[in-house]
Amino acid sequence: MPRSLSILGAPIETGASQPGCLMGPAALRTAGIVPALRGLGHAVADLGDLSIPPQEPLPHANAAIHHLAETRAWIETLQHAAHDAATRFELPIFLGGDHSMSAGTVPGVARRAAELGRPLFVLWLDAHPDLHTLGTTTSGNLHGCPVAYFTGRAGLEAFPPLPAAVDPANVCMMGIRSVDPAEEALIEEIGLTVHDMRAIDERGVHAPLSEFLARVEAANGLLHVSLDVDFLDPAIAPAVGTTVPGGATFREAHLIMETLHDSGLVSSLDLVELNPFLDHRGATASLLCDLAASLMGRRVLDRLTRRSA
User: Fold this and answer.
1) Residue 130 is among the residues annotated as catalytic for this protein
2) How far is CA 143 from CA 5, 51, 100, 101, 244, in A?
3) What is the dihedral of CA 132, 134, 139, 143, to 10 degrees?
4) Could you give the CA distance from residue 297 to residue 179 in angstroms, rounded to a whole number?
5) pLDDT category, 18, cuts 50, 70, 90?
6) Which of 13, 105, 146, 196 is most exposed by smallest CB count within 10 Å?
């Protein structure tokens, strides 16, 4: 069924170490995400891009941390914008931007879910669990902190107060293959569901995803999907500053999106960590647009054969 969608850009790169993610929203628009979704019958409102004003530096005891003030401002801005978009539209789509943006989008849609009296579930498609706190990060890259933040972990008091937290039991991670010791300990402590790439190699993607979706449906939950480019194998998605070999294949990624569409449960979406400076002739941006279209109902028989360059 056609749905009302919104597109909102978050050109944020302060959470990463390599510049370029701020060009992500423009690249996804250039690759045709809006006409692709409209072509499937959906009403799509492009709300443009968010911005923040210049910030005064915000010091922290962990000297590795950089751009804390800017990241905090982005998180606060995104929390308000995500809540507004989730209130006005059936399915808001947030274009990034590095993954620190999910510290804004997820709490924003979680606040809306709480207002509706429904739990928010999160499907985290990423090579990394992003479970660092400001005290445990050694890189100082704050795109490694959003899950710890939106699940209410201690050690992130320098971020804005949470408008609504996500129960760790409602988070499912798929594609994980790069975990720091501090993150591994926290996974065990708070009981996250994690399907790393070995588990996917052994079981495939459909069975664990279907199990998670059954839990969302049984709880009458809303489902936020956060798709990081590095979830995908770098051979098909090179445009990311944190490439990790052995990621999801083209068909695995599309099967996930097709299964999510069939479920009818998805209520919001992040597309993050696209760095067009590292792309090959727009291949990664085009793939993300195709995956978004699969999520919104494009079938295998609808796909056109593309000519080689």
Assistant:
1) yes
2) 26, 18, 4, 8, 16
3) 60
4) 33
5) very high
6) 196
Q: Is 302 a catalytic residue?
A: no
- Provide the edge-to-edge strand list for the sheet that holds 222-228: 43-49, 4-10, 91-96, 266-272, 222-228, 120-125, 171-176, 193-196
Residue 84 falls in the annotated catalytic set = no
Identified catalytic residue from 70, 183, 273, 279: 273
Q: Which of 13, 76, 98, 230 is catalytic?
A: 230
Question: Is 126 noted as a catalytic residue in this protein?
Answer: yes
- Angstrom distance (rounded) from CA 262 to CA 12: 32
Fold type of domain 4-301: Arginase; Chain A (3.40.800)
Burial letters for 98-133: b for 16+ Cβ neighbours within 10 Å, e otherwise?
bbbbbbbbbbbbbbbbeeeeebbbbbbbbbbbbbbb
Beta bridge partners of 10: 96
* Domain map (residue ranges) of the chain: 4-301
Q: Quick one: the chain helix, strand, coil %, rounded to 5?
A: 40, 15, 40
Of 13, 76, 98, 126, the active-site residue reads 126
279 has catalytic annotation: no
Banded model confidence at residue 299, pLDDT cuts 50, 70, 90: confident
Instruction: Decide if 228 is catalytic.
Output: yes
The three-class DSSP label of residue 287 is helix
The 10s digit of each residue's pLDDT in 216-239 is 999 999 999 999 999 999 999 999
Q: Does residue 145 contact residue 137 with C-beta atoms inside 8 Å?
A: yes
Catalytic residue among 42, 67, 83, 99: 99
Distance CA 130, CA 223 (A): 19
Among candidate residues 67, 83, 143, 224, the one labeled active-site is 143
- pTM exceeding the 0.90 threshold for the entire prediction: yes
